[in-house]
Amino acid sequence: MTGGGDISFFFKPESVAVVGASPEPGKISNIILGNLAGAGFGKRLVPVNPGQASVMGLECLPSLEESPEVIDIAVFAIPAGLVPGALKRAEGKVRGAVIVSGGFGEAGERGKLLEKEVLDTARKAGVRVIGPNCLGIYDAVSKVDTFFIPVDRAGRPGRGGLSILSQSGSFAAVAMDELAAEGIGVARIVSYGNAVDVNESDCLEFLASDPETSAVVIYMESVADGRRFVEAASRCSSEKPVMAVKVGKFGAGAAAARSHTGAIAGRYEIYRAAFRKAGVTELDGYEEFQAACKAFGLQGRAGGKRVMIITDGGGMGVGIADACHALGLEAAPLPDELEKELRAVFPPYFSISNPLDLTGSATDESFAMSVQKTMSGGHYDIAIVAALWGPPALTDSLPGMLAQKPGFSEKPIIVCTPGGEYSRSRLRLFREAGLPVFTTPEGAVRAAAVLAGGRRRR
User: Fold this and answer.
1) Number of domains comprising the chain
2) Checking CA distances to 417, which of 40, 48, 287, 410 falls within 20 to 30 Å?
3) Alpha-carbon distance 45 to 54, whole Å?
4) Tell me, what CATH number does 438's domain have?
């Protein structure tokens, strides 16, 4: 059912219209218009409503036909049955449509017929469509925000290099909110819902050459054209990391996906084969999605799978080493020359190995020196630092000292700091230092595995 062709105007529009714009607070169209204005979209913003002279101080157009110039994006926040007619009247006046309305393919046979009418009308009118049944676009670069969730209910991330593609609007919104809370920036987030036209393949083709995007994560229920997806994902993954969470894998999940977006989920084995062929790293559920976003939002891809574990708790280090092995990472022993160098500078009661245990006598300086000495050479690709806040010599300076890594700035450092109230109050310090931080060893290891380019299950 999908089209193809240029969709770049969705991400750098000169004008955005909201069809059905309402002055009534709480209405979806009012929220969208307010979010666009509040996000700082500095181009032309046009409310469309024949019953209003103005909304939020902006002059209303009675219809899209009345626009004196072509509008890049029209957001349709009107009942499903009115969308085909409004699209038809938009011919020659709109380049792209974001249809946030529900009541289409996910709503049964009648909705599927309406969805087909939308597609046929859009093609005749030469309009590209995102949706229906979606949130649309949150773009931290161009300041486009068509998500109809108020900002006080779901935070908006700042600008960064991560782009997220999602069939599910709720998944996109929750991810956006959590990334904002973690201080992790994004480039583009696209919720494309029923994907009547624009889908993940269209977006991947754009993101492959998008200089603002350094990594891509996909939430996927189904793919309409497997061959095109493999081609688009292969092209994108050759330029930057591409990861995917596949849901609707089995029985009840597949049925839920069908009722959610009208998607036919297909056999999971086929998706796994497609991911492997396209160079896409499959993520195992939402926790691994979070880990990937934290890791790639703050660090770059690792050059390999050799992990250096540094901790002040021996048992924690052993657990991390086991988790690394389970996910295909290598906690390689210290080379002889590096072991001698560490023994020369550290007291004899430190456990000089990998994991490197600094014991309860750990200091900010011993953690920082451990990272610097083990990661400066070519022995390791990733550092996992498990900092337990029990040792009295550890201070709030620790995160900043770990983040200063001259000579090996390209190598990722991932922090694990489990514990209660005191430890959790320090998470913010690591985030502010630009380090991905996790409260469990498993989360930190998942992030390391994703940065290393893949993982394997036990």
Assistant:
1) 2
2) 410
3) 12
4) 3.40.50.261
